[in-house]
Amino acid sequence: MTLTAPARTAPPPAPPGRAPGARRAWRKASPYAYIAPFFTLFAAFGLFPLLYTAYVSLYRVELQTPGDMQWRGLGNYTALFGDEFFWISLRNTFTIGVLSTVPQLAMALGLAHLLNHRLRGRTFFRTAMLLPYATSVAAATLVFSQLYGRDFGLVNYVLGLAGIDPVDWQTGTFASQAAVSTIVIWRWTGYNALIYLAGMQSIPHELYEAAEMDGASRWRQFLHVTLPGLRPTIVFTAVVSTIGATQLFGEPLLFEGSLSGGISHQYQTLGLYMYEQGWGFFHLGRAAAVAWVMFLLIVLLVGANALIARRRTRKEAGR
């Protein structure tokens, strides 16, 4: 028996109006054309303002005469680091960030753990979690500023029932920082709880069944199954909360309505300090320098979080 190779079929003809070379070129270029709109918008509204802000930070620019730019080099940065109020705002940013981020993530983790079990009305509770996040920053801050009023605030009224003297929440250093932190906690706890809940539901149920067969209690299951499975999610929320705490602006601005963040700058954050320099004192060059210091600080904090998480992962992998 002799076998004959089948005759080769001719390739289909190219569509009219497009040569084979043009078709291959379009096939290679089409993925870049699909993602081009995103990168175009990012370059126009993200990358260009960032680079232009760095350029402006090297000049003396006033809000009244933005076209009159005088070269200062690093003069804005040296003046910034020599300003006492800059270091006060940096310290306040760190303090308010810790007071708001740590309780917020801890409460969100606990709420997500409760919602992960079968409860009546779980859909209602999950929807209610997002209501504070959907509330306007201005509306929430104005309501909390009334609650923390010194003479007629509800918080001082409740403290008075317990025999505690009224607290001046808008004048005291720690009291005002704690008050601003509660606004941030109220707005973002439910949002982070839903993120943790989504992460918990992605953990295989077989791990819980195996732990239960080994006699592990609910608390042991949470420590040795839930938390290790949520580690990437916890790192993500910690990074996002750190960025948000560094850029905190609306809550301290509207809490009392002053750019200085209180009488003695007791709760002025870096975002509020930048706004005061640019639109309060009209120093756009120094405001741009503050913006770049905030950007470098965020990069440093995010890098530190990533380094700690990577070392923790390597340490547990080597066990």
From TrEMBL:
It is found in: Cell membrane. One of its GO terms (biological process) is transmembrane transport. It comes from Streptomyces globosus. PANTHER family: ABC TRANSPORTER PERMEASE PROTEIN, INNER MEMBRANE ABC TRANSPORTER PERMEASE PROTEIN YCJO. GO terms for cellular component: plasma membrane. The lineage of its organism: Bacteria, Bacillati, Actinomycetota, Actinomycetes, Kitasatosporales. The keyword Transmembrane helix applies. Residues 1-22 are annotated as: Disordered. This is Sugar ABC transporter permease. Residues 9-18 have a biased composition (Pro residues). Belongs to the binding-protein-dependent transport system permease family.
